[in-house]
Amino acid sequence: RASGPASASQSRIKIGAKMDGTITAMQATLHYEAGAFQGSPMGPGCMTVFTPYDVENLYVEGFDVVVNKPKVAAYRAPGAPQSEFAAEMAVNELAKKIGMDPIEFRLKNAAKEGTQTIYGPKLKVVGLVACLEAAKSSPHYNAPIPENVGRGLAAGFWFNIGGQSSVIINLNPDGTGTIIEGSPDIGGSRASMQMMAAEILGVAPSSLNPIVADTEHVAYNQTTGGSRTTFATGMAVVEAAEDIVEQLKARAAAMWNVTAEQVDFTDGVAHNLSGEDQLTLAEICASAEKTGGQISGRANINARGAGPSFAVHICDIKVDKETGKTDVVRYTAIQDAGKAIHPSYVEGQFQGGAVQGIGWALNEEYVYSKDGIMENAGFLDYRIPLASDLPEIEAIIVEVPNSFHPFGVRGVGETGIIPPLAAVGTAVAEAIGQPISSLPCSPPKILKLLMAAH
Length: 454
Hints:
Elements: E1 9-17, E2 23-35, H1 42-48, E3 57-66, H2 80-98, H3 102-109, H4 128-136, H5 139-142, E4 149-158, E5 163-171, E6 177-181, H6 189-201, E7 208-212, H7 229-256, E8 263-266, E9 269-272, E10 278-280, H8 281-286, H9 288-291, E11 296-303, E12 309-319, E13 326-336, H10 343-362, E14 393-398, H11 419-432, H12 443-453
Parallel strand pairs: 2-3, 6-7, 13-14
Antiparallel strand pairs: 1-2, 4-12, 5-6, 5-11, 8-9, 9-10, 12-13
Helix pairs in contact: 1-2, 2-11, 6-7, 10-11
């Protein structure tokens, strides 16, 4: 009752290309279910559908359709998986028709710095080409395709957002500290805040305690969403830490009777540039009572310049042609993170997005009665992937820094759910020798396709 389903959709894609692989035009008509009231994620679907491609002629129509079903709600990268599934399936079909490798086809038409997006801005430096090259040289793509297995590949794009974030960093007399931020941690972001602050202050991350607080303790933060937290709140953490560095220099200058301009601060140590004196961060904090009181830094920002993120996924699927059952044999997720602050958490985001997308592509489906009542409102009837269903998701982190962030961060949370739909759909199509035009690729649907073919 507190949420709702992702938006069901119908998409029609037309793509024109020369026989040398140059895409000349792309057209999409996208219909998104809103539920009983208007407001589907049709907008982001239109924004993202063709953004992985540098094509001069683009035309996209989007329709927000009210139907007798529950109101839809946001679901990871809302609107993008639906439209990009249709576009990527068409791209794969076209590459096959003209006899080009799907990676080479995408490399020939890939979005890059200067590409004009359909939703407005020209792209800055982005990592799609680097992701495609990483896929091309990956062990997975170069491995032979096993018997009775289909292989699929797809790209994905999410624009990411910035927004308002507020942070306070308080230092203690012993040199430890507390990072107070207002972005709920749903993917490991506290550790990333800890690491960014520690990098600026030149201390061990373990000496800083990150706390997610409410607006009684820290100023307003926008929600954790839009792949914004490590980018925007991380930027606020960096600014608050830099505020502290300036204060540390001023305190050290007061202790040495020099100006702050005569003090340098590197690797957690203040250096007197007019002499040989040094003070550690902990030593300055220990004397804070004598130099003006305890030390706190703060930042209240509205972050701009969220770097968009691209991903490329490769999927191998085996299909039992007697039952229609599908098994994911191998899966690789490649994505541009800008800079992976905490690499293992970044890999976790890649893997989590891939698993959600695989579930969407293979099994997950709401079943409604003619009266708009959901008939499979439980996990016995609504099948999501289990750890035992899948191989390890191989993650390859590509780092093409976002120049608008001090450490080059791009949001990574949402892009990973977008490529799996078409990667899985293409793999299933290759395995059964029949086109896939709708999801999920559940056993009854696969059997129906196989029976129709024979």
